[in-house]
Design goal:
Number of helices: 4
Strand content: 5-15%
Distance between the termini: 35 Å
Radius of gyration: 20 Å
Largest sheet: 3 strands, antiparallel
Structural class: alpha+beta
Number of strands: 3
């Protein structure tokens, strides 16, 4: 069992996965670059350009400070309906994450709350991206003009 769970090898190390995550967060916060830092400041913006080769912009992005959600999607160049795929993917990820807003609230708490909420929040985001994948594929299968459409997505 010790081989499967490396944090159990020594009595000086955290004994549970949860304690390990809390320990990681505390060490991160105590790092020399973050000593005395009270807040993280961010500045977000988005800009898209059709480029020189295409006549249609297949990019989509989302900036949602309230949710803490930032998405960039790029319809696969030259594929059918890439602009539809990217926009639909962004929309479904936002809707899915928005429905799980309560799960994300733990990310703003203490180290213990963050350590508990982080795996749940990651599952929410993973589920949202998976839902977008299924939706884009189904749309391509259902509508012959959209057959083979696709997009990249980063959230």
């Amino acid at each position: 069992r010790a081989d499967e769970e490396p944090w159990r090898r020594s009595p000086t190390l955290p004994s549970t996965k949860r304690e390990l995550e809390i320990d990681k967060l505390e060490r991160f916060r105590r790092h020399k670059y973050f000593r005395g830092v009270q807040a993280l400041m961010k500045q977000v913006g988005g800009l898209s350009d059709v480029g020189r080769r295409r006549t249609l912009n297949e990019d989509a992005f989302l900036i949602d400070d309230e949710l803490g959600l930032y998405i960039v999607a790029d319809g696969m160049g030259g594929h059918a309906a890439g602009e539809v795929a990217s926009r639909e993917a962004v929309d479904i990820v936002r809707e899915t994450v928005s429905r799980e807003r309560a799960t994300l609230e733990g990310l703003e708490g203490s180290s213990e709350q963050v350590a508990e909420a982080l795996p749940k929040a990651l599952r929410v985001l993973e589920s949202a991206v998976q839902a977008a994948t299924y939706l884009v594929f189904a749309m391509g299968e259902h509508d012959p003009t959209h057959y083979g459409m696709g997009t990249t997505l980063s959230a």
